[in-house]
Write a structure and sequence with these properties.
The complex is a heterotrimer. Chain B is an alpha/beta fold. Helix content of chain B is 40%, strand content 28%. Chain C contains nine helices and 19 strands. Classes of the chains: A alpha/beta, B alpha/beta, C alpha/beta.
Chain lengths: 481, 252, 440
């Protein structure tokens, strides 16, 4: 019960509260994208030759691709030559100790509620803090290292664990997977890397906190998570950005791999700046997230709460290759004002007795457009595949739209696939009932929306769930009445 | 406590209430009876502030304030409670959370501090006994999948927790078996005191066997056509509403 | 020897001039202009390839390229032979088309029912139709609708006056018979039901000579005026060897009721586009479909229900049983436009796969721009419930019987909604043998 109560905390402001900007010195590349920029990024990172080659190959491929037009979103053409592809806070690249973190940066994260001070972290969450695509601090590294867990920035992994990176990078999301993934493969600046050895249950939540700060910069991180046989990890990702009038591009990649009987839980609370009420500014969030259930009995579970971004384009997916593997996708996507979201999941059943579950809850308010797009595919070898999908839409007001595009492809007769979708509104009766008990309309809406999303919110780790509930209320503030 | 003066109200241009006059003092229990379509539930809804009704004339004063001027939540915070004829289902929202939100809003309105979790739990445990409801009901989604009887008992339970000054029970007896009826009545009787008042809106006399009203009013075609004591209810039960109808035709 | 899409496209566009010349003097100016526009739209689009989202799962063009023999001579059966292919005992006002040519029509039409040959209308009649003919057709966006609009040679105008109930069904038979090679046919119907009238329409599609491929491209436009009721049945039960594209566009005005059922049991590739536009208040649309396919047959039902006005109701149920290496496709779109508040729209698609090579692609799609609506869709794909089979076997039925019984029950849920008893029984009988002999 305590989870729901927090939503009733007084809602302080309807403004985006993470919209502040930090004044720190940046080391930035000039605007535009060409081979030299790719080389510059690589050299800034002091990368080995193989990494540079990989980037150049991706860049070449990207030049031959065109931006996808199929998502149900509209935005003016992106000028890829008007974006800065590398920006990093000026500080030592490798830190010997967390104490070396620039105090200004430290304050930035404190303000966002992310403490980089290990002593203050009572909740047992290890954090990799990433600002403008560069990892600035990773906490609890030593403690995790005792268990053989590697948790570090992607750049560090390239240097210190090249075998792992070379083996797994691009193995789930190939370099040429799609337009944005290919772009990322060419210009990614940093990200998080995580490796859980065989049989280890990661004792704390691992978390990456992404923060965009610099203006005109594109954000291109990669996350790579590998869970070896029988291991377990719960991973959290949070995102915020300053309020700016121009749109910012965020094209990230997350690849996760679960070996035999391994389990990975990946949770996201995405709250990039959504733009103002008129739709000026905001982040274009074009992200490729995919998990491979490689081993038998492995499990990957995606949970996402999407409240931010001007445009969201992402489909966290599971490739269920191992027999008896399980894929899950739990999503709450809220759009208000002029936001547009086209999001959903893909579940590809390859192995025997594979199971998947999709629960998607869309909430549209204002003049926003909210689309669910999903694919459930059962391949001929996938004997006894099971899928259940539930896609619900809640509409608030008559200027928004809710759309569902589920694709269901079954090539095996033993499959059992169920898909359900409903569209509804918040009932006037429900609001009146709350009013009659003394609860005002705004709180009633928050209460009802939280109830509607409960199945998904319950999947989030406690600390995130609270944050997510507050976010839902803030996002929808002023959308009724 | 409540003074209704010549209240007229309509829904979609159709006039339902055609001039209601009624005074209720603290400590009293009033029963409003009448045949289907006479305007009983409309009266309850108008007092609670459901916005599908248009009030065209008249006034309502509640504890000295203009009731019709208030939003529904303000009326609730001032102490007016409506037990719904058809309680609304809200999936995913537990009864406990819902009630806690309501309690604290009302406390805030009265200038009291929010109730802490421990005190609140103690309060609801105590009130639960009153209507003999099961703890499991509290963690379930509000009214979602409740039986008819559970919904009605939950309404009385909410009333017990919120301690209103004026409670309006809209057809609370409909659909209840005799045991549930007894439990509901027992709850209402226990809560009854010199500072609060209760209005029972009902079609049948049977609830009034358990909750003895001080006054009985007969609503017919949007007007109160007869008022009396509990004997009036018995007379109605015996003779049916046709008797009133004939009476009405003679007098009009 | 197969040809390319480009060649096939050029064949049709190249043929258009002489075709249009040949019709000269025999057609009105309006029709001539319409055909010109349509051939332009067709030339621009070409035949759809599978990268076209609407044809993603249906390689129609590929099948056409493989099977279509151009300019093969047509050899028609005689009318008496046609008769034995009629649905027994199904009485009504009949129109029989053989290879796209009108072979027979009932005389003595009841008062209020007018049936004309669409290709033989005079200038005055065509002018009267200018608000209807090709106004619902999606020829700007669908190549087959465009092809039909450019080339239709036959078809009917069925006009029902106001305030009339036509008791007997109007039955249109589309027979193909490619005795000496592939034939292709472009037929077009315009159906207008006047205010407060009721009618039943049955369209029967059969390939009389399954050894030969046929390409049957039919387009219909149906106008339901205020307070009308139309029962509309389409059967595609003996269509082996046929490639059929059926574009049916229906427009509903206030308080009109539509009951539409499509039953398909065979066909090389069948593509049904059924588009219902709800342009009135308090309309009701019941759109049903049943498909039982085996062998390598391919059935694709694309439906659209477009709610443009408030307070209407639509309910859609499509059920399929896919056996052998057959493929089923269902794409159901529901649009609820901003003005269509208080719409209730429901859709369900249920499939059983009986074989490891069978496949089913489902894409239900809701697009909602109004908030005070109730919409839902559901889709399931699975197999016969093993528990149910076991239960029946434990009562003495053998496995095949048990499965047959369950399949039959699955299918007849839809057939039971057919209001013409003769047609209902005919269809039940025709599926019963199939289902009781399913191997798996």
């Amino acid at each position: 019960m305590s989870k729901d109560n927090l939503i009733l905390d007084k809602l302080t402001s309807s403004e985006y509260k993470y919209g502040f900007e930090t004044n720190i010195e940046n080391d930035s590349a000039p605007k535009g994208l060409n081979e030299d920029i790719v080389r510059l990024i690589s050299s800034k990172k002091d990368e080995p030759e193989w990494m540079l080659e990989w980037r150049l190959k991706a860049f070449k491929k990207w030049q031959s691709l065109t931006e996808p037009k199929w998502p149900n979103v509209k935005y003016p053409e992106i000028d890829y030559q008007n974006i800065i592809y590398y920006s990093a806070p000026k500080q030592q690249v490798s830190l010997d100790s967390l104490d070396d973190v620039d105090p200004e940066l430290r304050r930035t994260f404190e303000k966002l509620g992310i403490s980089l001070d290990e002593q203050k972290r009572l909740t047992g969450v290890a954090v990799d803090a990433i600002i403008d695509s560069v990892s600035v601090a990773t906490t609890f590294k030593d403690k995790l290292a005792e268990l053989g867990i590697i948790f570090c920035s992607f750049n560090e992994a390239v240097h210190n664990h090249p075998d792992l990176v070379r083996k797994y990078m691009g193995s789930v999301v190939p370099m040429n997977d799609n337009y944005f993934a290919t772009l990322n493969s060419a210009v990614f600046s940093d990200g998080s890397f995580c490796y859980i050895p065989k049989g280890v249950r990661c004792p704390m939540e691992l978390s990456t906190y992404f923060r965009i700060n610099a203006a005109n910069t594109g954000q291109f991180e990669r996350t790579l998570i590998i869970a070896e046989e029988g291991s377990y990890v719960s991973y959290l990702e949070g995102c915020t950005a300053p309020s700016r009038d121009e749109n910012q591009l965020h094209a990230a990649i997350v690849e996760i791999i679960a070996a035999k009987n391994a389990e990975i839980k990946y949770s996201t609370v995405q709250n990039w700046y959504p733009g103002n009420k008129e739709g000026v500014g905001g982040v274009y969030n074009f992200v490729t997230k995919r998990g491979l259930c490689e081993g038998n009995g492995s499990k990957i579970s995606w949970t996402q709460v999407e409240t931010g971004s001007a445009i969201t384009w992402k489909y966290p997916s599971c490739i269920l290759k191992g027999d008896n593997s399980i894929g899950e996708f739990y999503s709450v996507a809220v759009t208000n004002n002029m936001q547009q979201a086209d999001t959903g999941s893909k579940m590809i059943h390859i192995g025997k007795n594979t199971k998947s579950r999709i629960v998607s809850k869309g909430v549209s308010a204002g003049s926003s457009q909210n689309s669910y797009r999903g694919l459930v595919q059962v391949l001929p070898r996938a004997v006894n595949a099971r899928n259940f999908s539930q896609c619900d839409s809640l509409l608030m007001g008559d200027k928004c739209g809710a759309h569902t595009f589920p694709y269901i492809e079954t090539r095996n007769s033993t499959a059992h696939i169920e898909h359900e979708a409903t569209t509804s509104k918040i009932g006037e009766d429900q609001i009146f009932y709350c009013n009659q008990r003394g609860i005002d309309t705004e709180d009633a809406v928050a209460l009802i929306v939280n109830g509607y999303c409960k199945e998904v919110l319950n999947k989030l780790p406690m600390e995130f769930a609270v944050e997510a509930q507050k976010l839902l209320a803030l996002t929808l503030e002023g959308s009724v009445g | 406590m409540l003074i209704i003066d010549n209240l007229k109200a309509s829904i979609e241009e159709k006039q339902i209430l055609k001039g209601i006059n009624l005074q209720i003092k603290a400590g009293e229990v009033h029963a409003i009876m009448g045949p289907n379509g006479s305007g009983k539930s409309t009266l309850a809804s108008v007092l609670a502030g459901r916005d599908s009704y248009d009030v065209s004339d008249g006034s309502v004063s509640f504890l000295g304030k203009d009731l019709l001027d208030m939003t529904p939540e303000l009326r609730a915070r001032e102490g007016l409670f409506l037990a719904f004829q058809y309680p609304i289902e809200i999936p995913g929202v537990s009864s406990t959370n819902f009630l806690k939100a309501a309690v604290n809003k009302i406390r805030e309105h009265r200038g009291q501090d929010a109730m802490d979790a421990v005190t609140f739990l103690k309060l609801i445990k105590e009130k639960m006994k009153l209507v003999e409801i099961d703890q499991s009901l509290l963690s379930r989604s509000l009214n979602d999948g409740f039986s008819g009887g559970e919904k009605k008992r939950n309404e009385i339970f909410q009333m017990a927790v919120l301690e209103p000054r004026l409670a309006i029970l809209d057809e609370t007896d409909s659909g209840l078996d005799i045991d549930a009826l007894r439990i509901v009545a027992n709850g209402v009787n226990t809560l009854r005191n010199k500072d609060n008042a209760t209005v029972i809106v009902t079609h049948y006399q049977r609830l009034l066997d358990y909750i003895i009203p001080d006054f009985v009013h007969v609503l017919y075609d949007g007007k109160i056509v007869k008022s009396g004591t509990k004997e009036l209810a018995l007379e109605l039960e015996e003779k049916g509403y046709d008797w009133i109808r004939e009476d009405e035709q003679v007098t009009s | 020897m197969s040809i390319t899409e480009r060649e096939l496209r050029d064949y049709f566009t190249g043929r258009f001039e002489s075709f249009n010349q040949g019709l000269n003097g025999n057609q009105s100016l309006e029709i001539k202009e319409l055909r010109q526009k349509a051939i332009g739209a067709f030339a621009k689009q070409g035949f759809p390839l599978t990268k076209n989202e609407e044809y993603k799962y249906t390689p129609l063009t590929k099948a056409l390229l493989k099977s279509l023999k151009l300019d093969a001579p047509v050899n028609s059966e005689t009318i008496p032979t046609c008769k034995q292919h009629l649905i027994p005992e199904l009485e009504g006002h009949m129109l029989v088309y053989l290879n796209g040519k009108l072979a027979y029509r009932s005389e003595d039409l009841p008062e209020g029912l007018e049936i004309e040959q669409l290709d033989r209308l005079d200038q005055t009649q065509i002018s009267e139709l200018k608000n209807h003919l090709a106004t619902l057709s999606n020829y700007q966006s669908d190549a087959f609708a465009a092809l039909n609009t450019a080339f239709f040679q036959s078809g009917s105008l069925i006009k029902i006056a106001a305030n009339i109930t036509i008791d007997k069904p109007i039955i249109i038979y589309h027979f193909s018979d490619g005795q000496s090679g592939t034939i292709y046919t472009q037929t077009r119907h315009l159906i207008m039901v006047g205010k407060n009238s009721r009618a039943t329409l049955v369209e029967v599609n059969k390939n009389l000579n399954p050894e030969h491929q046929t390409f049957y491209n039919v387009a219909s436009e149906v106008f339901l005026e205020e307070d009308t009721q139309l029962h509309y049945y389409k059967t595609q039960t003996e269509c082996s060897g046929s490639i059929i594209v059926d574009n049916t566009n229906i427009n509903q005005k206030d308080r009109s009721h539509l009951y539409c059922t499509t039953v398909t049991t065979s066909g090389t590739i069948i593509r049904n586009n059924l588009n219902v536009t709800i342009n009135g208040e308090y309309c009701e649309s019941y759109i049903n479909g049943l498909y039982l396919v085996n062998g390598k047959d391919h059935i694709d039902n694309h439906t659209t229900v477009d709610h443009r006005i408030a307070n209407s109701y639509s309910n859609e149920l499509y059920k399929g049983i896919i056996d052998d290496a057959a493929t089923g496709v269902f794409n159901g779109k529901i649009f609820v436009q901003p003005d269509a508040q208080k719409t209730n729209a429901f859709q369900s698609n249920k499939n059983l796969l009986l074989s490891d090579k069978a496949s089913m692609n489902t894409k239900p799609q809701l697009e909602i721009w109004a908030d005070d609506v109730k919409c839902s869709h559901g889709a399931t794909t699975g197999q016969i419930d093993g528990e149910q089979v076991f239960y029946l076997r434990s009562r003495g039925l053998d496995e095949q019987q048990a499965k047959g019984l369950l399949l039959y029950a699955f299918a007849t849920e839809l057939l039971d909604r057919i209001s013409l008893p003769v047609l209902k029984d005919y269809l039940k009988e025709s599926i019963s043998d199939r289902l009781y002999s399913c191997e798996s």
